[in-house]
Amino acid sequence: MTRARDLADGTFANDLTVDTNTLYVDSTNNRVGIGNAAPGNLLEISGSSPILEINSTAGVPELQFSDGGVDEFSIQYDTGGNALRFVEGGVGAHMVIKDGGNVGIGTSSPSEQINLVGASGTSKIRFDGDSGNLQNNFIGITGYDDLIIASDEANTGTASTIQFRVDGSERLRLDASGNLLVGTTDTALYNNSTTGTGFHVAPSGWIETAATGTNAIFNKLSSDGTIAEFRKDGSTVGSIGVASGDRLYIAAPDSSPTGLVIDGDNARINPSNGTGADRDAAVNLGHSGARFANLYLSGGAYLGGTGSANHLDDYEEGTWTPTPISLTTSGTVTYTGTYTKIGRFVFGLLTVSSSGGTTTATADTTRFSGLPFTSDSIGGMGLSVITGTTTGTAAGQVAFSGTTLITGGWSAAANIRMSFWYTAT
Predict the structure, then answer these.
(1) What angle do CA 314, 319, 324 make, to 5 degrees?
(2) Short-list 318, 332, 341, 348, CA closest to 417
């Protein structure tokens, strides 16, 4: 039989049980169980997904924690602002969770999923490996405007780095020496021969890159002008740029700006001023104290002007083998020939040397074939006798026929040297 009673006050000397385990008071251990007839703590709630609900339609319901003194913390629900607050007694809220999920630390109005607001322009998130390795790694701000990412701020390590990883692989790092490395951990890429690519900026200011393809691309947009500028002690000493849309130039400023411009459209390299414009008849190639060794040309050279009369299309030095015709000899005779060709003009030298004998030539009959170039029959010759005598006027008797030299005469000469010139066809 169930009997209803009204109790104004009541004291229970022993345990209290309501509906087996709906509410249980353990008077021996001073414990309360809800859904639990054997609570192991001061208050223990048991069940399938149990919920403890504080339902307040107004104000700020609060769950408070205290040491019995002045220190206390509480969790509050601001029904008016729809926010859960974590509060330190006498100080205020340190963290707020707004409806929608934004979390504010140091602010009651977080504008992002996590919003940190510090004091006096300082706000940090700190990371340490463990209690025995307090490196003081942090991300934060100091002085309001400066974002700082710090690795080993306490300087307890020797090789700390800041790394950026993407898709499981390191892509960029800043090491303890100040090297910025992209795609590599190698600070000596310049030593690599076939493998090991990346980009490195050293703290001393120099840059290196290693790649299997193009190492660098500089894209000048819109207007002509400088693509790269080079300076020494703050002053410009040179530049690389573009002129006329697609002509690359390399130039130095100085008092008389000078450079070279590569004109790919016309397959030529021109002297230029400091901005890549052609500079005519003003730039020297070398000087008396700094000469180039050799100049290799497949065409000719224009000297002193640009007309056809100024075009030197050939210069050549060499030897030729004279073959005598109708020359009387005794002893051992040798024949040597050299030449210099400038344009169509051929300047030659013929030497006839007799050891233990002499040579005798008949004017207009004695000939030497083997000239290096075919003659157009115009030319002249001078005759000198090293040993022996000559007859006739050799220079007046010279003639040329094709690759044959027709000489003047001489008699009983041991050594003859003949210089001549003619025009080639």
Answers:
(1) 125
(2) 348
Question: How confident is the model at residue 387, as a pLDDT?
Answer: 58
**HSE on the CB side for 260, CA within 13 Å?**
6
The answer to whether the beta carbons of residues 151 and 162 sit under 8 Å apart is yes
Other C-beta atoms lying within 10 Å of the C-beta of residue 85:
21
DSSP string over 246-286: TEEEEEE-SSS-EEEEEEGGGTEEEEE-TTS-B--S---SS
Q: 133: which residues sit within 8 A by CB, 6+ positions away?
A: 156
Instruction: Check residue 268 and give its pLDDT.
Output: 95
Residue 3: C-alpha distances to residues 30, 74, 158 (Å):
28, 42, 80
Cα–Cα distance, 274 to 207 (Å, whole number) = 26
CB atoms within 10 A of CB 414: 19
CA gap 211, 200 in Å, rounded: 12
Q: What is the pLDDT of residue 407?
A: 83
Mean local confidence (pLDDT), 349-365: 87
- Which residues are within 8 A (CB) of 137 and not within 5 positions of it... i.e. 6 or more apart? 126, 127, 128, 150, 151, 152, 153
Contact (CB, 8 A) for 419 and 382: yes
Q: Which tokens go with 275?
A: 């901005």
Average pLDDT, whole number, for the chain?
89
Backbone phi, then psi, for 265, in 5-degree steps?
A: -60, -35
In the block, residue with structure tokens 């790649």: 211
Q: What is the average per-residue pLDDT within 297-320? A: 91
With a threshold of 0.90, does the pTM exceed it? no
Region 244-258 average pLDDT: 93
The pLDDT value recorded for residue 393 is 40
CA–CA dist 290, 288 (Å, integer): 6
d(CA 313, CA 311): 6
Structure tokens that stand for 176 in this block? 């303890």
Q: Which residues contact 354 (CB under 8 A, 6 or more apart)?
A: 329, 330, 331, 332, 333, 413, 414, 415
Dihedral sign for Cα 185, 188, 190, 192, please.
Answer: negative
Burial class (CB in 10 A: 0-12, 13-18, 19+), 12: exposed
Q: Which pLDDT does position 394 carry in this prediction?
A: 45
Q: Which of 56-70, 262-276, 394-408 has the lowest mean pLDDT?
A: 394-408
